[in-house]
Amino acid sequence: MAAGFEKEIKTNGESIVKRLLQVLFQIVLFAVLLFVSAGRLTWTWAWIYLGTFILNVTVNAFVLPKDLIEERGKTKENVKKWDRVIMTLNIIPALGLLVVAGLDYRFGWSPMLVEWIPVVSLVVMILGNAFFTWAMISNHYFSTAVRIQIDRSHQVATGGPYNYIRHPGYVGFIIINLATPLVLGSLWALIPGAIMAVLFIIRTALEDSTLQKELEGYKEYAEKVKYRLIPGIW
How far apart are CA 101 and CA 185, in angstroms? Predict the structure, then answer.
């Protein structure tokens, strides 16, 4: 009994460390993609973007439940095959957005944006991050993969933003990825941002269908909270 408990603690600790390393790798990768494609380090808005990203993940490290961080860092079981396909495809526009923005900065493909657009976009991006974090805090089963978490006694999340829409995390994510190109001053980077938005709308539809079929209580929840992403529309 004690040995099993100690093994569980060790596994959970390894999951947290793994998640921290994933985030650190992501930060370094983002920086490399931005500055190598831009061909210089003197890109103010890229530094602002990275600083905002680092601040956001730092806040999340303090406010997110420990078990959620463990879930997001561990190797997943029973992940839906279609979700693996979508998230693999998503890697291309996710990294492409930063590369396109960097090349745009280097070669000046986009017209110079008026000063208030990156500023307003930064505020929108921060609000998107805050909404995403609110969704994670409100849902202890907020995973990086679509799966029924039998190992964690998966239950329907109904608090916080889940009172109003069924997939608030995806709303926050879409907002972030549509605002980021404008923060970086690139109209061309809106193309991969839009591709990611489409992929996550598809993911929303497939995940919602899966939850209604496989998660106890979700169908009743869906009857009360009518909309997936946008109140009054869908």
Answer: 7
